[in-house]
Design the sequence.
């Protein structure tokens, strides 16, 4: 696998571990550029996955792992287009991101998200497709979509349901509040909570450990215990698109985009 | 609920240390967004540090409309 350094992300394969680094300022918001580079990444992985046993996804940005979808781009693009075209554009975008995340979810590698700071919305969904989450003690998890009149659209609900008890899923989705890493570990979301700044180091040590085991066994175990909820993922896209068409969503997006940060990441 | 002096002091000490502001420049009724010069992402960072320090869980919606240390201390005190 050739190394790649893009504008939003980079990757390298070393000693059987693929490392995917996110580095789009300010906090790895997932817009069309990041999506294009993620698509390139999964295509590159297709030809190289037999040479690796693990994937680590992490962020180089100080603010956190990923703050979610690029809401500014989403709002501006939806304003430029006729309503039907905007709706088609949103559905197309979601389907593309689902293809990428479903591919990572099903990889015959053990995948580790090494997270710190803000791990919100689409960023949380990116972490959720990984087999393990290693969080530093400053990581914070949230689905703030409710605050915009939406639900998570990148597969977060089916994957939360797969991993957590329903009461915790309801708490996250219906209150829109954020959890810290300690709470996330208590509810079974996070595998290890580590010192501030140590998530990548610990993820690398975990990945090195994984390299000692028979890869076919790991692949068989993962396929058995981690089903991909394809039908629910498709249904999530439908519900998201229905909600996105509501006027309240455009108003919520506009407020976020036009704010001068009088608390936009706070509820 | 009136926060204890100790709770308030610990909050201001933690904020001063982390955001590198001289402690004597902070007062309980300061708008911490302005005084610390922080945005909402940094406020979440502060929230996490406070939760870790006091070993509590403080839902971020409880910070709605809270911008001074004294009111923040009240919210934390209610969880101790």
Sequence:
């Amino acid at each position: 696998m050739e190394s790649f350094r893009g504008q939003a992300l980079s990757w390298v394969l070393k000693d059987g571990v693929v490392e995917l680094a996110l580095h789009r300022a300010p906090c790895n918001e997932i817009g069309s550029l990041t999506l294009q580079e993620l698509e390139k990444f999964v295509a590159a992985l297709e030809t190289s996955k037999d040479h690796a046993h693990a994937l680590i996804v992490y962020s180089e940005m100080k603010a956190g792992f990923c703050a979610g979808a690029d809401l500014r781009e989403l709002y501006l693009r939806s304003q430029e287009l006729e309503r039907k075209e905007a709706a088609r554009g949103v559905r197309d975008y979601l389907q593309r991101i689902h293809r990428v995340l479903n591919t990572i979810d099903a990889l015959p590698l053990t995948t580790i998200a090494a997270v710190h700071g803000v791990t919100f919305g689409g960023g949380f969904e990116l972490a959720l497709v990984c087999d393990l989450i290693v969080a530093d003690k400053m990581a914070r998890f949230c689905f703030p979509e409710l605050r915009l009149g939406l639900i998570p659209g990148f597969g977060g609900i089916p994957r939360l349901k797969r991993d957590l008890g329903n009461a915790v899923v309801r708490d996250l989705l219906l209150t829109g509040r954020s959890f810290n890493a300690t709470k996330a570990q208590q509810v079974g979301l996070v595998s290890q909570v580590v010192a501030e700044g140590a998530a990548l180091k610990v993820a690398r040590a975990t990945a090195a450990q994984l390299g000692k085991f028979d890869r076919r066994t790991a692949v068989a175990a993962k396929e058995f215990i981690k089903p991909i909820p394809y039908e629910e993922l498709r249904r999530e896209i439908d519900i998201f698109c229905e909600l996105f068409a509501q006027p309240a969503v455009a108003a919520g997006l506009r407020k976020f985009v036009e704010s001068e940060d009088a608390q936009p990441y706070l509820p | 609920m009136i926060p204890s002096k100790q709770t308030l002091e610990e909050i201001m000490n933690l904020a001063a240390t982390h955001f590198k502001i001289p402690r004597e420049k902070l007062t309980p009724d300061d708008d911490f967004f302005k005084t610390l010069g922080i945005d909402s992402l940094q406020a979440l960072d502060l929230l996490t540090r406070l939760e870790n320090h006091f070993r509590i869980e403080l839902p971020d919606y409880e910070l709605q409309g809270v911008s001074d240390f004294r009111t923040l201390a009240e919210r934390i005190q209610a969880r101790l």
In short: Chain B touches chain A through 17 residues (CB under 8 Å). The longest helix of chain B spans residues 5-19.
